[in-house]
Write a structure and sequence with these properties.
The complex is a heterodimer of chains A (129) and B (362). The two termini of chain A are 13 Å apart. Chain A is α+β, with helices and mostly antiparallel strands and 129 residues long. In chain A, strand 1 and strand 2 form a beta hairpin. Chain A has one domain: OB fold (Dihydrolipoamide Acetyltransferase, E2P) (Beta Barrel). Chain B has 362 residues and is of the alpha+beta class. Chain B is built from nine helices and 21 strands. Chain B is globular, with a radius of gyration of 20 Å. Classes of the chains: A alpha+beta (129), B alpha+beta (362). At the A-B interface, strand 4 of A face loops of B.
């Protein structure tokens, strides 16, 4: 069973969201997701200042196996992207919840966080996969 | 019904992620296929290839039979132990399988064919051998371990006794030797130095463990695929199959046209195809931007469309490479287009060989 930190929120499409306070969140993909995808070779990120809406395909995680869309788990404006992934996409594999983060979003509405799954809800959603 | 090789327990012990490979439960990786890939390019890695099919062909007609069966000419083999890569075709000139033939004497050969094609290969070989005085014997009692990489031979050498060391001493590429219980061949599917070792199944787990203790990295099918693709080696079922001529699969070099009176199966069709010059060809593609050329993607050229038969990310080169079947008029050095994730990208056409002995070769 892969690690699912209890302090994060999750989307069923395997993104995690960390509340950094002041309406800012960090987004990444879960350890479970990176395990399914295999060794990451490229990560295409959104541009800073992009306005994104929940469910938009905003990034691409390309592994040795396949290219997978990453969906915005929440709506807002992209304020920072993880540029380290350009040279080291494998960070998504080795540290999915840490150094492998993808981008940060200034939320349109902080209440949107409540619509996401908690760790238990995400664990249940993986079991159903 | 899932088959397991005799090394199955060793794979689980090593943390393998197992997948179904044409009815065999095989390791796809033991953690990171890219790390396994690099181990083979820079040091030594090992693959369980026990699922592959070993077939011994013996008898007074063994040479005559194989000169009929395969498109290369086994009569060229005159040194005991020499190996030959070739294909066997159906009467329509389509590739039934690619294989390696090992020569011992003109009445004694060994074939190694693919596992995914085992049943149809054995049926075809049995059917074609009916008119010849030969015995065809599958050897499922052998396991097979491929040890590949610049340090592979040195690491294997630490496990061999004096007699076995003498047997493999100075062995050139594409040779084989029986060294005690080990049938050791200087063949492989990675573009690196190394051995493929067939041995009695009951000894395989011990050899695997000794190799592990000698620092050889276990590698799964994932790394096997990126390594063979970098080396420009075909994978049956992707780069060619029964509907594809060897002339369209970069296998023309494995056909012996001389002597002209050798009546190998498919000769008539292949001769006509060669004269017509109408077969597409298998080339290499290089894409140095972000993104990965994937199997099945369409290739657009000024001479018509082609298709990517195998595509991947090359861990050695750090960008994507592929093999593609394209119209014959496409030349090395050309730029063609590939439809990738809803957009067209430019890719370069080269000879289908990307990395050999750890180095870029284009």
């Amino acid at each position: 069973m892969s690690n699912i930190p209890s302090e994060l929120k999750y989307a069923t499409s395997h993104e995690w969201v960390r509340n950094e306070g002041n309406g800012v969140v960090t987004v990444g993909i879960t350890e479970h997701a990176q395990g399914l995808l295999g060794d990451m070779v490229f990560v295409e990120l959104p541009d800073v200042d992009d306005e994104i809406s929940t469910g938009d395909d905003v990034a691409v995680a390309e592994s040795v196996k396949a290219a997978s869309d990453i969906y915005a788990p929440i709506s807002g404006k992209v304020i920072e992207v993880n540029e380290d992934l350009d040279d080291s996409p494998e960070l998504v594999n080795s540290d999915a919840f840490g150094a492998g983060w993808l981008f940060k979003v200034q939320l349109d509405d902080a209440a949107d966080l409540d619509a996401l799954l908690d760790a238990e809800g995400y664990a249940n959603s993986i079991d159903e996969d | 019904m899932t088959n397991k090789t005799v090394l199955h327990a060793k794979h689980i012990e090593a943390g393998a992620k197992l997948v179904d490979f044409y009815g065999w439960e095989m390791p796809i990786n033991y953690g990171s296929q890219i790390e396994e890939h690099h181990a083979v390019r820079t040091d030594a890695g090992m693959f369980d290839v026990s699922h592959m099919t070993i077939v011994d062909v013996k008898g007074v007609d063994a040479q005559a039979f194989l000169r009929r069966l395969v498109i290369n000419d086994v009569a060229k083999l005159d040194v005991a132990g020499k190996a030959l890569y070739t294909g066997m075709c159906n009467h329509e000139g389509g590739v039934i399988d690619d294989l390696i033939v090992y020569f011992f004497t003109t009445t004694d050969y060994r074939l190694v064919v693919n596992s995914a094609t085992r049943e149809k290969d054995l049926a075809w070989i049995a059917e074609q051998s009916a008119e010849f005085d030969v015995t065809v014997t599958e050897r499922p009692e052998f396991a097979m371990i491929a040890v590949q990489g610049p340090q592979a031979k040195a690491k294997v050498a630490t496990l061999l006794n004096a007699e076995q060391l003498a047997a493999v001493d100075g062995m050139k590429p594409f040779f084989s030797a029986q060294a005690g219980d080990l049938f050791i061949a200087t063949t492989g599917y990675t573009g690196e130095d190394g051995y493929e070792i067939a041995l009695p199944a009951e000894q395989a787990a011990d050899l695997w463990q000794q190799l592990l203790d000698a620092g050889v990295q276990p590698c799964g099918l994932g790394a096997r695929d990126t390594l063979r693709l970098e080396a420009g080696m075909n994978l049956y079922g992707l780069d060619m199959d029964e509907s594809v001529s060897p002339l369209a699969a970069n296998m023309a070099w494995t056909i012996s046209w001389e002597p002209a009176d050798r009546n190998f199966i498919g000769r008539e069709v292949l001769t006509a195809q060669k004269a017509a010059g109408d077969q597409p060809k298998l080339v290499g593609l290089v894409f140095e931007e972000k993104g990965v050329l994937r199997t099945g993607l369409k290739v657009i050229t000024p001479f018509g469309e082609g298709i990517i038969t195998s595509g991947t990310f090359s861990p050695t080169l750090g960008h994507s490479i592929a093999m593609a079947r394209v119209p014959r008029s496409v030349s090395f050095g050309d730029t063609v287009e590939v439809e990738m994730r809803k957009k067209l990208v430019n890719v370069k056409v080269i000879k289908a060989s990307f990395v050999r002995n750890g180095k870029k070769v284009f």
